[in-house]
Amino acid sequence: MADVRCPPAANPVRRPRELVRQFIGPVALIALGSLGGCGVLDHGFMGAAGPIADKTRSLFLLACFILLFVVGPVLLLTPIIAWHYRLSNTKSAYRPKWGFNWSLEGLIWIPPAIIVIVLAVFLWRDTHALDPYKPLVSPNPPVEVQVVALDWKWLFIYPEEGIASVNELAFPSDRPIHLSLTSATVMQSFFVPQLGGQIYAMAGMTTQHNLAASEPGRFRGENTQFNGMGFQNQKFPVLAQSADDYTAWLARARAGGKTLDMNAFKALSARSTQAEPIVFGSVTLGLFQSILALDHPGIHAAHMRAR
Fold first, then answer.
1. Rounded to whole angstroms, how far apart are CA atoms 223 and 225?
2. Would you say residue 103 has pLDDT above 90?
3. How crowded is residue 124: how many other Cβ atoms within 10 Å of its Cβ?
4. What is the pLDDT of residues 207-224, one digit of tens each?
5. In contact, 74 and 80? CB cutoff 8 Å
């Protein structure tokens, strides 16, 4: 007769070492995964590549430093108080009913009030300094670009150059760029994290944005306002180029031969994602103003349904 042995019954109480081993594995994987994602910070304002994003990063770090005076005492005193009033410490009695104490009340109210006042001063100052409508100080004139948000792509019109591009924004790194934004569809949010903050684009109106790059580079722009199925693909490269490279980029655009008029715009505004950037060598004069004047019954109907 075969020797059949039953497996030992599972012990519901595991040894501490086994629990530690099973706990360390997942924690190590999570830690390594989080470290591997640190490169994501390079695409945000923490990897600032322009004066606006640099000031935003400085304000963020300053606010974090000031808030350490709030978080620090909490993190320090919580374990100390918990340890002091532990159940086994019979020498220190816990007396929740105590009288008014000026020193304690001052400690509770005065430091937080000072922190709020200091934060308010810095935020008020930098909010005005980082106003997106405020022109940037530069010895060179800004590049004028008219931006139209579409589903699910971005149209950039260069009125001074007479060209346009789709899903590619280029400008010389030694000049700031002034953007006039509108939308030919629902509200969208224009955002180039390494150069500056986000600004909304809305149908029938214009918003203004001023950006600059500290040096040549390639950055990522995107729409951060959800607007449908193609939202995740509505990203575009932003090229801050040297003067020679920008001149060559303009020459390639003009050599493209395509003309952007109202008929071409209506075809372009159909809902679709653009795999590769495209350029137009010429643009109908006043096209941006014509887009602003368009009636958008689909948008108005969507707003009415939302109500």
1. 6
2. no
3. 10
4. 999 999 999 999 999 999
5. no
Cα distance between residue 99 and residue 301, in whole Å: 63
**Entry pTM:** 0.76
Q: Which of 234, 207, 209 shows the shortest CA–CA distance to 220?
A: 234
Instruction: Name 192's bridge partners.
Output: none
Whose CA is closest to 60, among 108, 130, 2, 107?
Answer: 130
- pLDDT given for residue 42 in this prediction: 65
Give the contacts of 15 (CB within 8 A, at least 6 positions apart).
none
From the CB of residue 6, how many other CB atoms can be counted at a distance below 10 Å? 5
pLDDT at residue 151 greater than cutoff 70:
yes
Position 176 pLDDT exceeds 50 = yes
pLDDT over 50 (residue 306): no
DSSP the chain: -----PPPPP-SS--HHHHHHHHHHHHHHHHHHHHHGGGGGGGSGGG--SHHHHHHHHHHHHHHHHHHHHHHHHHHHHHHHHHHT-TT--SS---------HHHHHHHHHHHHHHHHHHHHHHHHHHHHT-TTSPPP-SSPPEEEEEEEETTEEEEEETTTTEEEES-EEEETTS-EEEEEEESSS-EEEE-TTT---EEE-TTS-EEEEE--SS-EEEEEEE-S--STTGGG-EEEEEEE-HHHHHHHHHHHHTT--EE-HHHHHHHTSS---SS-EEESEE-TTHHHHHHT---HHHHHHHHHH-
